[in-house]
Write a structure and sequence with these properties.
This protein has 4 helices and 5 strands, in the order αβααββαββ. The longest helix has 22 residues. Strand 4 and strand 5 form a beta hairpin. By secondary structure, the protein is an alpha+beta fold. Helix 2 packs antiparallel against helix 3. It is about 40% helix and about 20% strand.
């Protein structure tokens, strides 16, 4: 799987603030099933990982952002589940740690920009299609992380990655 793992992170690095990828001191990732209970699993994974990295004091903020990103991703992943792709869980959470920053990134199978909920235009204004919910989520992500962004996946991977960055120390 080693090869697959590194290609997954390539486009992520391009979308991030300028960080030397070689300087990643630790990283962890987990695949999440396309079910809403996966949010709890994502929080649990985040708690364990931050504990191992001595960052438990940051759990509340990071877990809130992880929950929002995973919820958003699942909203896209649930209808897209097709048996053909069942070998590859549609949503993946990555946590990466540098000396002075932590990044959480969530991959989902949709190419739409986060919060668009299928609409064109990246507004967070309430609308009848239910995009208001994800707009609120992104407002929280924006409030609790130091920066965030997203980009489509490259190559044979479908979907996008939404990431959020936390400064440490």
């Amino acid at each position: 799987m080693g090869m697959n793992g590194s290609t997954m992170l390539e486009p992520l690095r391009q979308g991030l603030p300028p960080i030397d990828p070689a300087a990643v001191s630790s990283s962890a990732s987990c695949a999440l099933p396309a079910r809403f209970e996966a949010v709890r699993g994502a929080r649990q994974f985040t708690r364990t990982t931050l504990g191992q990295w001595d960052l438990s004091d940051r759990f509340d903020d990071v877990a809130l952002v992880v929950s929002e990103l995973v919820t958003n991703a699942l909203r896209h992943a649930l209808p897209a589940e097709s048996p053909r792709e069942s070998h590859e869980p549609p949503v993946r959470l990555h946590l990466m740690r540098w000396t002075s920053r932590l990044v959480c990134a969530v991959r989902d199978p949709s190419h739409d920009s986060p919060g668009a909920a299928g609409e064109s235009g990246d507004t967070a204004f309430p609308d009848p299609s239910g995009a208001a919910e994800s707009g609120r989520g992104l407002f929280l992500v924006d409030s609790f992380s130091d920066s965030w962004g997203w980009h489509p996946l490259a190559g044979s991977l479908h979907g996008k990655v939404v990431w959020a960055l936390f400064r440490l120390g």
